[in-house]
Specification:
Layout (H helix, E strand, L loop, with lengths): L2 H10 L1 H4 L17 H29 L2 H25 L3 H16 L8 H4 L9 H7 L7 E4 L3 E4 H13 L7 H18 L4 H7 L3 H17 L50
Antiparallel strand pairs: 1-2
Helix pairs in contact: 1-9, 1-11, 3-9, 4-5, 4-9, 7-8
């Protein structure tokens, strides 16, 4: 379910960065030595989204009430907290691990399997952790950027982390038929949730590839710096409901101000996010 994290970073990041770099890069990015290949992969991914993912997500969006989509989002986020917990333990961040375990327990019981995010209401906000961040915690802070087929933006470090995260996740140990169904639902639900925010993305980025790359790397660097909790006043609660903003699409007025470093300048989302 890690495509959730990536898609979320790609699209919701636009809202917090407003008009961050919109011109096509003329100099080689120091963290993007494979830029030519990455750009070709981005073009392929965008074509697949236009032909396959977006049409299916649009049908799902129309047919599914918002409260149902929110419940699906919460459910998969709750399952993802298992991987977050494991990586917090590996990073020896025991306080964060305990809070994540408490969050998972509360949402799994009182939140009916995680469909309702009761824990956030109680102050146990979503944290971010994956094996890519665990590798960064132990010294691998910089890594070449990669644009993966279908999955989207990543780095060599984070791609290796996907494999480890898979074995830390309960999805690796369930029946394959259930896995495929759950993965399809998660993917379509994520894409549907991002439909309303597409015009922000189109408005902010003239060079979409550079924009996505820079936002992804900024987000990951912010998480490496320790800004991983959706605490009030940070990424999460304060900027969780995009519909609360009234944005003038002509001049961009009304966009939230850029978040000072070292807070993430994204979600996106997502969840990220998670």
């Amino acid at each position: 379910m890690y495509i959730k994290k990536i898609l979320t970073f790609m699209f919701t990041a636009v809202l917090l960065t407003a008009c961050a770099s919109s011109s096509k890069v003329t100099e080689k990015h120091p963290e993007d030595p494979f830029e030519r290949l990455n750009r070709e992969m981005y073009t392929l991914n965008k074509g697949l989204d236009t032909i396959v993912f977006k049409p299916i997500a649009s049908i799902y969006y129309v047919a599914t009430p918002a409260i149902v989509r929110k419940g699906v989002t919460n459910f998969f986020s709750n399952v993802g907290d298992i991987t977050v917990f494991a990586n917090k333990v590996l990073q020896l961040k025991i306080h964060d691990a305990v809070r994540t375990a408490a969050r998972f327990g509360m949402n799994s019981t009182f939140g009916i399997g995680g469909v309702f995010d009761i824990a956030s209401e109680a102050g146990l906000y979503k944290m971010r952790a994956d094996f890519g961040l665990t590798l960064a915690h132990y010294g691998m802070k910089r890594s070449p950027f990669l644009m993966l087929p279908v999955l989207g933006p990543s780095t060599m470090r984070d791609t290796a982390g996907f494999v480890a995260d898979w074995f830390l996740s309960p999805w690796a140990y369930i029946d394959h038929d259930i896995l495929y169904i759950a993965g399809a639902i998660d993917l379509v639900n994520i894409r549907a949730n991002l439909l309303d925010d597409q015009y922000y993305f189109d408005y902010a980025a003239m060079d979409e590839y550079s924009f996505i790359r820079d936002i992804y790397l900024q987000r990951r660097n912010a998480l490496i710096a320790g800004q991983d909790a959706q605490a009030p006043g940070q990424w999460g609660e304060e900027y969780d409901d995009w519909d609360d903003w009234e944005i003038d699409q002509e001049d961009g007025s009304g966009l939230p101000p850029p978040v000072p470093a070292p807070l993430p300048v994204q979600d996106a989302l997502d969840d990220a996010a998670a």
